[in-house]
Amino acid sequence: MKNIRDFTLTELEEEILNLGEKKYRAKQIFAWLYREIDSFDEMTDLSKELIQKLKDNYILQNLKLSQFQKSVDGTIKYLFELNDGHKIESVMMKYKFGNTACVSNQVGCKMGCNFCASAKIGFVRSLTAGEIVSQILEIQKQSGEKISNVVFMGIGEPLDNYDNVIKAIRLINDPKGFNIGARHISISTCGIVPKIYRLAEENIQCNLCISLHSSRDSIRSEMMPINNTYHIDEVMKACKDYIKKTNRRITFEYALVDGKNDSHEDAIHLARLLKGMLCHVNLIPVNKIKDGKYEKSSTEKILAFRDTLNEQGIVATVRRELGSDIAAACGQLVRDQKTNID
Ligand code: SAH
């Protein structure tokens, strides 16, 4: 059966017409889909007959909560079970500006970055748009709090699940959906170049974050196999095109690894690469994963790296680490508790 949360309003209108119902019913149904309801019976402004038709034809995908953990800093990590039994993790982080949902878009990941726990579990499948947005609904339901920002920084590579992620963004953005502004939505990618060009054409004002982690091809290829396919200069060209077309600032994520990419020369090299670009660098102390060989850079080195970038005219900040005590920080998410590490 189809998941009713997989449809945009236009698609739902088509579905409802095919059920022999009036088109305007789709609007009513669509509005219900973004409230935390568990059953079609809760759609109180629909007739019994229509509710029955919906039950006969669609599932109201609800993720099953398997487990949750709360960090001392208020971050909550949820382990959700999908209808086919696979599991994913989602995280809610509390910031002064509001609550952020960090959502997964795949079960596992193909990209194989050697510092990331999600890569270690292999790839199972991509999530549908409905499964992606359901994570936000479930987080709101479980926490009793409203989500105001969404980041595609959970498990999976968003640009490797392009169509579903774009659809999910449109649903999140839709005034009749979650009504979260595109500027409050961020996609993070390891750098799938053709999809960056495509994203630039979508006319979505979301934030694009590029996982760079090194400005040198030899080091980046060692950390991220995708760099063998798309080298840094190609990623940069695509980023410049993105900025030109969207006029949006790009965030470069840079996980600092002791002795690998954190020297003064590395900072200068990175600043040269980014010179003149409308961008911002987000420095992340690398989180050590099980069997991982990378260690975090020291706080002094991280601050020195940031200062060098700033002196070179590149805006750089250090990302606040949230949820590391519950393995909810960057790169620590895995698809189920059996393989949970840290
Ligand atoms: N596939 C997407 C989303 C991944 S997670 C991407 O590659 O961007 C979001 C961010 O966390 C990425 O920048 C990723 O490189 C980073 N990350 C992954 N593992 C990490 C770790 N162990 N320590 C710090 N950051 C990590």
Model description:
35% of the residues lie in helices and 20% in strands. With 342 residues, it is α/β, with parallel strands linked by helices. The chain folds into 2 domains: 58 residues, DNA polymerase, domain 1 (Orthogonal Bundle); 263 residues, Aldolase class I (TIM Barrel, Alpha-Beta Barrel), CATH 3.20.20.70. The strands form 3 sheets. Strands 3-4-5-6-9-10-11-12-13-14 form a 10-stranded mixed sheet, with helices on one face. It has a two-stranded parallel sheet with strand order 1-2. Helix 1 packs across helix 2. The longest helix has 15 residues. Bound molecules: S-adenosyl-L-homocysteine (SAH). The site of S-adenosyl-L-homocysteine has 18 residues, from strand 10 and strand 12.
Structure in a nutshell:
With 342 residues, this protein is an alpha/beta fold. It contains 12 helices and 14 strands.
- Structural class estimated from helices and strands: alpha/beta
CATH superfamily annotation of the largest domain: Aldolase class I
Shape, please? globular
Lateral strand order in the biggest sheet: 3-4-5-6-9-10-11-12-13-14
Enumerate the distinct ligands. Answer: S-adenosyl-L-homocysteine
Report the CATH topology name of the largest domain: TIM Barrel
Q: Hey, roughly how much beta strand do the residues contain? A: 15-25%
Oligomer: single chain
**Alpha-carbon distance between the two ends:** 38 Å
Supply the number of structural domains: 2
**So what's the CATH class of the largest domain?**
Alpha Beta
Discrete helix count: 12
CATH structural architecture of the largest domain: Alpha-Beta Barrel
Secondary structure: helix percent? 25-40%
